[in-house]
Design goal:
heterodimer; A: mainly alpha; 4 helices; about 50% helix; elongated; B: alpha+beta; 8-stranded mixed beta sheet; two-stranded antiparallel ribbon; about 20% helix
């Protein structure tokens, strides 16, 4: 059956469950990925970011049910830190299209039947 | 076109690498495409250097002169191919190893391991993308990485995903249908090699849905370039 397109993506009482287990998840995350933080403040800050990312992973799971989302080695980074540190593509498609006439030329159309 | 195709089965994909905390995804995408093209041209898989592009490639976009490749601060794969055409080629990873930081250019022309013959841009047409993949080897592509920070496995096919591109990766194959771990739903998908190490995603790889009813998901079809390597005996 088709997925209902309108889905409840804000959790109800499982927020409490997540809150309760976040510290346990964080401890295993730190151990699994060999994380270390400068001091107690940094540790506390990263725990709060981690909790937010648990909620984000749950939202992603609801919005993307055919994949598996959860804790990854980037779970102690805010989305902005993640983008700034681990991506690195400078252009959007708009300027890329303008390049079509520049040094990059169109690939010839290839046969795709048979 | 074959229903399923994966260049990893034919030796044209090098090892999964890790860009570390440096915005150099563009150089991994470009080096992966040239590794595949060079394999098709020579029959040998040579693992190529990203650090040479990080340190030495400051090529600018011909249509946007203020947008140039800038090492850990980002770049564009077609700029990188232009640079490689001008520099004469790319050294091997062994001769110019990756540090994950911007550095002074140490390019040594006598150590070129692979050279670009030419490169081109593929239209937003999934059949054309698949045909260019099968014909020319792995393709350098852009993608929106919004769902990749939390991705663990399966075929990603978000109901909602932006198409502005912020990450450069390598398209290595495609599958007719993949069962998603959570839901037994078949979805045809692209197979994408990322540069965040083997302990991310599916051993360093990402799968995203493709097909007429989910075209260009997360912008995956909208920045595709292919490169051919100079044949050396």
């Amino acid at each position: 059956e088709e997925e209902p397109l309108i889905r409840q993506v804000v959790g109800g009482d499982d927020d409490n469950e997540l809150e309760l287990n976040a510290e346990r998840h964080f401890a295993s995350f730190v151990q699994r990925f060999g994380k270390s933080y400068r001091d107690a403040d940094e540790h506390a800050h990263r725990l709060s970011v981690f909790k937010a990312n648990l909620r984000r992973a749950r939202r992603h799971q609801l919005l993307d049910p055919s994949a598996v989302h959860g804790v990854t080695k980037f779970s102690d980074l805010t989305p902005a830190e993640f983008r700034a540190t681990y991506l690195g593509l400078r252009k959007t498609r708009r300027s890329f299209l303008r390049e079509l006439g520049g040094s990059a030329q169109d690939a010839p159309v290839l046969p795709t039947d048979g | 076109l074959p229903d399923d195709f994966d260049w990893r089965d034919h030796g044209a994909v090098g090892p999964v690498k890790n860009q570390g905390s440096c915005g150099s995804c563009w150089s991994f995408s470009a080096s992966g495409a040239l590794e595949g093209a060079n394999y098709l041209a020579t029959g040998e898989m040579k693992v190529l250097s990203e650090q040479q592009m990080v340190d030495c490639d400051h090529e600018c976009d011909p249509s946007e002169h203020d947008s140039c490749d800038a090492g850990c601060n980002g770049g564009l794969m077609t700029n990188a191919f232009s640079y490689l055409l001008k520099s004469g080629g790319l050294e091997s990873e062994k001769d110019y190893p990756y540090t994950g930081r911007d550095g002074a250019c140490k390019f040594d022309k006598s150590k070129i391991a692979a050279s670009v013959q030419n490169f081109s841009v593929v239209s937003i047409d999934e059949d054309q993308i698949a045909a260019n993949l099968v014909k020319h080897g792995p393709l350098a592509i852009g993608i929106n990485a919004a769902y990749m920070q939390t991705y663990i496995g399966g075929v990603s096919c978000p109901y909602i995903c932006g198409r502005h591109l912020d990450h450069g990766v390598l398209l290595v194959g495609y599958g007719a249908a993949g069962f998603a771990p959570i839901r037994l739903k078949e979805k045809p998908y692209w197979i994408i090699k990322n540069s965040w190490g083997e302990n991310w995603g599916e051993h360093g790889y990402y799968k995203i849905c493709r097909g007429s009813n989910v075209r260009n998901k997360c912008g995956v079809d909208s920045m595709v370039s292919t490169v051919t390597a100079i044949h050396t005996s």
